[in-house]
Specification:
Elements lengths: L1 H15 L9 E5 L4 E6 L3 E2 L2 H7 L8 E4 L6 E8 L7 H15 L2 E12 L2 E12 L12 E12 L2 E10 L3 H13 L2 E2 L1
Antiparallel strand pairs: 1-2, 2-10, 3-4, 4-5, 5-9, 6-7, 7-8, 8-9
Length: 187
Amino acid sequence: MKYTLILLISCFSTLSTGFRVYEDKLVPVKVSDEIGVSLPESFQPMTEEQMQRKILSARPPLAAYTSPDQRADFSVSASNTRWQANDLPILKDFYRSSLMELYDDVDFLDEGIRTVDKVQAAFFEFTSVVKEDENAVVPKPPVHTYTFVQYTIHQGKTLVFTFSCPLRQQEQWQPTAQKVMNSVKLK
């Protein structure tokens, strides 16, 4: 009877945590000579094919990583910029407007400007929906996503750090996304 009770408690614990039995340990990752971040130990660099399929951008990211099931992703992108560090509030408003245009529906959970590793960063934590294209030949269901994105100006570049996963996995990945974004290190 005692073992049955322990088994039932263990099964209930697994079900109530969304089948996530353990917390993925964060490990330091060197993105470049100037950029470091801590990512879940199980994350692996994306292949070229994965990046082309998942990251829609004119430029490839500096680095991109994905979870073992390829549902949670983290990427770092950079672009030359004329923004100055004191332009961060304007940059934040600019990117907020861009995010509103990029998705059909956006619900901002948190946003602002904060200090990460002695550097000011604009951030947005949100859920989004991209609806089906009405003119699509093959209909697709809407895509619901949780995203944490962080922007900073560093050495004449705008750096963009993005963590995303399907909305149904938000509860599982949100604490990790927040820790990852707090772990960014810039030289």
